[in-house]
Task: inverse folding
């Protein structure tokens, strides 16, 4: 395997690590689609910085993109809080508008330059090893530095905030009352998701960011029994799909990020089959589904109190 | 009749084609949007529209030509397959709806990208134009496209009219519609099929990525202005059509891609409606100082 190939796999693996860790929390919090929205919404930020400074892929770009990621999240929160728009519709309203701004900006100001719609959508992971910066006398790919930095930052964040993150994910009410500052932690998580989505956007393009965040995490969710093992499994699946995906791209002569995504989808299918009906997290999910069964089963016995019907319906589902 | 309409517009012929096409599309998508928004499934529609990509690529590989008929058939098939997959994943209760949508989005996009880049690398000269399905291309519209949009759109709106009561009860009270004997899966299949029609009509014009906005934004705007579904559907359609017309004209004049312009206009209308709607809007509510909670309950 050539050095360039190894470099691409390592960058993809590092990116998967950061995405999978944050993605696991998002999947458990039912916010799995947020990175998708953010990754589309950052496009105008990247274009704006390009138009203003002529730079693409500098720290300024990351800042501009993050700003628009935050605008997306803030707009979504505002629409949701008005109570006039359901959360899903709010999300579907905000990100296409921002993405449209970006597409129009590229078409108007930046056409023919180094930034084009294709690289915004497909990403340039393939050429990542070619763009290097000098570090301690050696040429190091810029993506490796940015992605590595983001991964280390995410790891530190999760380790430091482990208890409040865990509490606010599984039991937000408890987290708030126990003084674990659930809301602050949620905001920090959103901020981290935005930054990592921007980093991911640079490597894999707008539309595959969701794959890196959600698929390994959802796969791990199928098999893992504890939060810590879910995170580790998700990271493992991320690295495995980076390796498999690179091989697949070579075989098919096709897009590397796309093939990595395809590999992780295959691993998800395996995990889905393997994890059927097992494990504590599986039962946690079953508890969610038993709510569906209650609404179905309570129709004939509508006199029963909700708590009773829940108590009778839940075990019948588990058996 | 179509000819007469195209000639009577005060626009050059190619622009008139685009404007009539985007207006028809805006109306169909807007009127079908409530099927998504009222059931809180907006992102479900996003996944369905992204799922048209692998269908387009597979149809191209099978048919060997980029003729729109085959490609749209492929798009419809894969959008429906994605909807089926999401429903099955959620029904089997092993995965939350948002994660299921995320996984299906990922399958569609990765498969679509891998197939499209593979097709591009084979250097087939026929493959030009496939990329248009990602971001849309209204400029290439011809009269036949309008005829197709009008025919399929009329059929879809006719179905919506015929099944209106059924879809209404399923949107607001699934339990009730199950009790009166409407099989949930039939209602699901019907509304998914109608949405697939709207999405397939839209992907070539506004693209797979932005299509969801054309379904959601007009409905969100109309929802702020009316309280009954019988008025919501035509109003959302009209708002969609208006966004389509304005977007078509503006993009023609300014030589911008039509899809993003239409989406921005529709979103602006929706945000303005949220802010300034009489009684319900943010501004009206802050003036009369109605407690937000009471109003939110009323909205439900």
Result:
């Amino acid at each position: 395997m050539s050095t360039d190939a190894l470099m691409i796999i390592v960058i993809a693996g590092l990116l998967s690590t950061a995405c999978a860790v944050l993605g696991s929390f998002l999947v458990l919090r039912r916010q799995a689609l947020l990175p998708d929205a953010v990754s589309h919404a950052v496009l105008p930020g990247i274009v704006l910085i390009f138009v203003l400074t002529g730079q693409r892929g500098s720290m300024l770009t990351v800042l501009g993109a993050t700003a628009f990621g935050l605008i997306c999240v803030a707009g979504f929160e505002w629409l949701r809080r008005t109570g006039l728009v359901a959360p899903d519709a709010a999300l579907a309203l905000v990100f296409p508008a921002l993405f449209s701004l970006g597409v129009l900006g590229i078409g108007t100001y930046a056409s023919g330059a180094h930034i084009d719609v294709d690289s915004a959508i497909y990403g340039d992971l393939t050429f990542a090893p070619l763009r290097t910066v000098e570090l301690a006398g050696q040429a190091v790919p810029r993506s490796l530095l940015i992605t590595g930095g983001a991964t280390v930052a995410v790891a530190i964040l999760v380790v430091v905030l482990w208890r409040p993150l865990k509490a606010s994910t599984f039991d937000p009410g408890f987290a708030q009352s126990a003084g674990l500052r659930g809301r602050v932690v949620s905001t920090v998580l959103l901020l981290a998701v935005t930054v990592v989505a921007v980093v991911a956007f640079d490597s894999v393009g707008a539309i595959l960011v969701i794959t890196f965040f959600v698929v390994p995490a959802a796969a791990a969710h199928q098999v893992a029994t504890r939060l810590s093992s879910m995170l580790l499994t998700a990271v493992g699946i991320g690295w495995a799909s980076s390796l498999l995906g690179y091989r697949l791209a070579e075989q098919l002569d096709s897009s590397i990020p796309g093939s990595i995504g395809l590999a992780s989808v295959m691993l998800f299918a395996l995990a889905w089959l393997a994890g059927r009906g097992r494990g504590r997290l599986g039962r946690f999910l079953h508890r969610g589904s038993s709510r569906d069964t209650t609404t179905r089963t309570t129709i004939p016995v509508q006199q029963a109190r909700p708590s009773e019907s829940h108590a009778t319906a839940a075990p019948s589902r588990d058996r | 009749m179509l000819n007469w309409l195209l000639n009577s517009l005060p626009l050059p012929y190619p622009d008139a084609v685009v404007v009539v096409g985007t207006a028809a599309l805006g109306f169909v998508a807007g009127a079908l949007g409530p099927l998504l928004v009222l059931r809180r499934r907006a992102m479900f529609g996003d996944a369905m529209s992204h799922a048209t990509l692998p269908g387009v690529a597979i149809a191209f590989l099978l048919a060997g030509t980029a003729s729109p008929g085959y490609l749209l058939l492929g798009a419809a098939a894969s959008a429906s397959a994605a909807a089926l997959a999401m429903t099955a994943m959620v029904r089997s209760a092993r995965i939350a709806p948002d994660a299921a949508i995320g996984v299906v989005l990922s399958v569609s996009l990765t498969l679509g990208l891998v197939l499209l880049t593979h097709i591009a690398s084979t250097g087939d000269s026929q493959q030009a134009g496939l990329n248009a399905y990602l971001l849309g291309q209204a400029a290439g519209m011809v009269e036949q496209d309008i005829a197709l949009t009008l025919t399929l759109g009329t059929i879809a709106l006719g179905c919506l009219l015929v099944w209106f009561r059924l879809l209404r009860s399923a949107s607001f009270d699934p339990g009730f519609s199950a009790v009166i004997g409407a099989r949930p899966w039939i209602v699901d299949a019907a509304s998914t099929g109608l949405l697939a029609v709207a999405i397939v009509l839209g992907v070539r014009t506004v693209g797979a990525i932005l299509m969801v906005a054309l379904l959601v934004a007009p409905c969100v705007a109309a929802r702020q202005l009316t309280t009954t579904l019988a008025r919501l559907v035509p109003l959302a359609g009209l708002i969609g059509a208006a966004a389509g017309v304005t977007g078509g004209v503006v993009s023609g004049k300014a030589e911008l891609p039509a899809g993003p312009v239409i989406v921005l206009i529709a979103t602006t209308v929706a945000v303005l409606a949220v802010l300034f709607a009489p009684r319900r809007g943010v501004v009206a509510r802050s003036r009369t100082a109605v407690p937000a909670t009471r109003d939110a309950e009323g909205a439900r």
Notes: DSSP finds 17 helices and no strands in chain B. The domain at 2-210 of chain B is CATH 1.10.3470.10 (ABC transporter involved in vitamin B12 uptake, BtuC). Residues 229-254 of chain B form the longest helix (26 residues). Chain B touches chain A through 67 residues (CB under 8 Å).
